[in-house]
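Interim report to the steering committee. The following record documents the input for Helix-turn-helix transcriptional regulator (214 residues).
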Amino acid sequence: MPARPQPLTPLGMAILELLHEKPIHPYEMTQLMRQRQVDRRVKLRPGSLYHTVDRLQAQGFIEIVDTQRQGRRPERTVYAMTEAGRDAFVDQTREMLAFPAPEYPQYPVALSAASELDRQDAIDQLKMRVIALRARIAADEVVAKEVRDRELPVMYWIDHLYDHHQRRSQLAWTEQLVADLESGRIPWPDAKKPPPHPQLSIVDNEDTDDDKAS
């Protein structure tokens, strides 16, 4: 039985997505990703991009179709996507859309560790996060207005809408967490006795069958 092909990395997916449009060279890939803010969801460094391009070529997913030189600038290699690359991109897109994959964001790790801080220190850091999230959300709205004004189809920037929704949800949840900590609704751990487990407003609680019956 043949081995399962190595999955495309997020950066590899981003490169193949660009090559759906036209053959381009790695420098232009970098510029387009930054212009379209792809670097907000994919770790983008020049070294890693060139490494990924080399890997995609070795896998047969892209191929060299031209070289360009402008003035005294170094020669630039232009790549295009192969049929194998298109098939791999489509297959992985389907899989990623259909099945949730494990992800490892930093915020839950920080929340788990927060009780080791002083209570007010933790609250202060959460308030700083609230400020940062509000700024990112405002920036999202500026970008959304620009693309709407350009009348770009929504599916071309649906990933930005998803990120925006995630940030808004995280902001609302974090604001409520700060309020619960400041009010004492969520008590800070006491070294002398285990903390109680109150009904938390940061958790959605549905009525139980017993509650409905009473």
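The two ends are 60 Å apart (CA to CA). The committee is asked to note this result when reviewing the revised timeline.
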